[in-house]
Amino acid sequence: MVEEVQKHSVHTLVFRSLKRTHDMFVADNGKPVPLDEESHKRKMAIKLRNEYGPVLHMPTSKENFKEKGPQNASESYGHKQYPANQGQEVEYLVTGTHPYPAGPGVALTADTKVQRMPSESAAQSLVVALPSSQARVDANRSAPAGGSERSQPAAMAVAVVDGGNAKNSALMSKKAPTMPKPQWHPPWKLYRVISGHLGWVRCIAVEPGNQWFVTGSADRTIKIWDLASGKLKLSLTGHISTVRGVIVSSRSPYLFSCGEDKQVKCWDLEYNKVIRHYHGHLSAVYGLDLHPTIDVLVTCSRDSTARIWDVRTKASVHTLSGHTNAVATVRCQAAEPQIITGSHDTTIRLWDLVAGKTRVTLTNHKKSVRAVVLHPRHYTFASGSPDNIKQWKFPDGSFIQNLSGHNAIINTLTVNSDGVLVSGADNGTMHLWDWRTGYNFQRVHAAVQPGSLDSESGIFACAFDQSESRLLTAEADKTIKVYREDDTATEETHPVSWKPEIIKRKRF
Q: How many CB atoms lie within 10 A of CB 260?
């Protein structure tokens, strides 16, 4: 179709030129001045050569042209064919009839010639351009081919013209990476269910000494449990709404909590009472974390901000603004960047703690980011969203890989030093992954507590204890479930069902 339009345009130009030439030889009285046939042919030949030579003799698809009409535009007017530049051989870098650059879904014609470039990468690119002069030819020779490489489909079959003989060849796509063999991890099994809360258990944290752990619930209480026996040690009341976050300080005998009542509290565990309040958030506070080396507390809220507090003075050091929806999770580390937040606006932000400004915004997720976890040994982290679990590299948030398969709203992530990543979801499912390869080696869906509805099977938080031998989950059936590794499992009884298949990674 494009070829026919192009030929029609050329014919129209030549016809108009003939008409203008004819009008030049009309006398003032309106009568034409007779010209002999030789003079007329000579003048037309000069005009065609000077103005339309490069256009008339562009390469065309001869097969289609034979069916539709004469061989070229000049034959339709009965004139002799003239070369584009007399005395010079015009070398067209690209032959073919498609006037637009190649793109995904745009097939090239069989007459397309591969452009030859000095660089190795550019030699594989296709440039579909119709040069009109020798200057254009030279420009095309020296032009970079990056754009055409990006727009060219990876494995498009192309006919390469070589000395007039067409040979079918295919541009081979770059070899896709294959998943390395994952490390074998023993499966985890449920061995204890702890009951005591009267509402959804929304958060969980293990104290640094590994003697007890603390949970916060929708029943507005904070409960402290003995880790070894699972017995209740203490209940703390003070919040007037759901407790959404708890953390125990490793630098002082303090417990910090936050909730949907907009309050952030500091509890002195020697007296079991609140000693400080941190006022400033305008809506529910969804999460909090302590900086590992300085006395700084970071909280995140439904008011689309995260706040940095001085633990001792209760002063708000920074208000981290930039998210456009609720900030669901926040994490701190001693290295740069020191603060990472995940939000319902689908973005992750890495913050400069000193300046209180965003360093990097990661926009790869398509849905809300409710969980972020930092690897305890590697300089990497992972984020959980209903579309994918993604792994990133610090300090600039370079994308590593997708962990696909947990198709649910992921509320929580945790990872241990052995590279076992755990993701817990709103539908009660828990997936265990090998951190290095992204291999999903176990899926768990524990039964709900007797008396609870099947719909109350969500996992809101999970954490490994300090020895990393136990995994604790806080669930919607008002229980805390404790898992441990199966000591009887071996690589023979629970083999890795791994094949060196091509990794299917989403592009974003």
A: 20
Greatest distance between any 2 Cα atoms in the chain: 119
Strand partners, 165: 162
Instruction: List, for residues 202-235, the tens digit of each pLDDT value.
Output: 999 999 999 999 999 999 999 999 999 999 999 9
Hey, how many other C-beta atoms are within 10 angstroms of the C-beta on 115? 20
Helix (H, G, I), strand (E, B) or coil at 9: helix
Distance, in Å, from the CA atom of 292 to the CA atom of 38, rounded to the nearest integer, reads: 96
Distance of CA 31 to the CA centre of its chain: 74
DSSP code, position 393? E
Say if residues 373 and 332 touch (Cβ distance below 8 Å).
Answer: no
Question: In whole angstroms, what is the distance from residue 265 CA to residue 246 CA?
Answer: 10
User: Dihedral of CA 406/408/413/414: which sign?
Assistant: negative
- pTM as predicted: 0.65
244, 284 contact by CB (below 8 A): yes
In single-letter form, the type of residue at position 470 comes to R
CB contact at 8 A, 345 and 325: yes
155 closest CA partner among 169, 134, 141, 145: 169
**Taking Cα atoms as reference points, which of 78, 2, 84, 87 lies closest to residue 49?**
84
Give φ, ψ of 252 to 5 degrees.
-155, 160
pLDDT value at 162 more than 80: no
Among residues of the chain, what percentage have pLDDT more than 90?
A: 57
Compute the Cα dihedral for 485, 488, 493, 499 and give only its sign.
positive
Give the closest residue to 288 by CA, choosing from 329, 336, 228.
Answer: 329
Q: Which residues contact 313 (CB under 8 A, 6 or more apart)?
A: none
Q: What is the DSSP letter of 312?
A: T
For residues 37 and 79, the model is more confident at 37
Give pLDDT, residue 115: 39
Whole-number Å distance between alpha carbons of 379 and 337: 11
Task: Find the helix packing angle between 2-24 and 37-47, rounded to 10°.
Answer: 130
Beta strands in 278-338 (DSSP E): 285-290, 296-301, 306-310, 316-320, 327-332
CA distance 311 to 114: 66
CB 263 within 8 A of CB 285: yes
Distance CA 101, CA 128 (A): 5
The CA distances from residue 411 to 75, 89, 188, 252, 371, in Å, are 74, 69, 20, 29, 6
Peptide bond into 153 cis (omega under 30): no
Residues 6+ apart with CB under 8 A from 20: none
Please name the amino acid found at residue 360: V
Residue 306 to residue 311: CA distance in whole angstroms: 15
CA atoms within 13 A on the CB side of 267: 22
Q: Are the C-beta atoms of residues 172 and 124 closer than 8 Å to each other?
A: no
